Amino acid sequence: MKALISVPKGVTFDTFFPPENVKLAESLGEIIWHTGEGRMTEEELIEKIEDCDTYVALWGSPCLTARVLENAPRLKLMTVLGSTVTPFVSEAMWDRGIRVISGFDYFSESTAEGAIAYILAALRRIPFYSERLKRSGEWSSVSDFTDGLIHKTVGIVSYGGVGRHIVRMLSSFNVKLKVYDIRELPEEDKEKYGFTQCTIEELFSTCDVISIHTPYNESTHHMVNHRLMSMIKKGALLVNTARGGVIDQEALTRHLQAGDFSAALDVYEVEPIDPSDPILKLDNVLPLPHQGGVTTNLRRTLTADLLRESAAFIDCSAPLKNEISKSYARGMSFS
Predict the structure, then answer these.
(1) CB environment 34-47: b (16+ within 10 A), e (fewer)
(2) Full-model pTM
(3) Is 290 designated active site?
């Protein structure tokens, strides 16, 4: 395998490529490293990719445009260390038959774990009580309260990569699970994890916790709008670890200011969110700075796994475990 790794050196590089992964990469074949200080440009990509059969991309890496591909006659595989492949693929790439793998499943499982952490933190008011104890030493009293997840009705919006993992994880929490998806979901999954499929209106109007896991694209922009949010039960919890644009944030802010429900938000329509945004000042909001994705330990793991998978495919024609098809890529988030 001869691979071009387009990830620039720095903090992000170090989390994906600690010394053991650098050593692993160089043991698997000839590696061309990006040595520039910033993100690789298309011109730099064209210059370095000529003899490579694998292109390793991450956030900010150049797309495999037709122009790039004219200078990459040997290229057979693109390895995306992130989740979505949308920013890196092109029709010219698909037409050439270049295969794609990504860390999608690793990111999905980690995001599901993060969503559950946010749900528990919000219901049990963990940040509030922890900060109060640190700030003033104030202990709990009979007037304090926390909520819990057990016996709640939990709604999962979209049964994609993250949705499948969170349903599996939540099935151990003794909750009633409802799932909305545009496709009819497998009966075996419903039986195995104990969930029912329902309309989005039923989900929003009956669930105590609603967790959003919908990819963001043109068809899902502001999918969660004022109409749906008006259906949410008083005191329910809305969680978004998908993309900010899936929810109409202006309408969401109005509902939260009115105290209609509470929210745990990891993503926003504009990121980073303005520190003066009113949504950050509300007591019924647990705001997070887009940290619900893949954790540092999984960055190391997925990089090592995808490098080995790439080498096995190029050198031994092994099957691809983490392949993303053209049709699946079209349903992924923009970024």
Answers:
(1) beeeeebeeebbbe
(2) 0.93
(3) yes
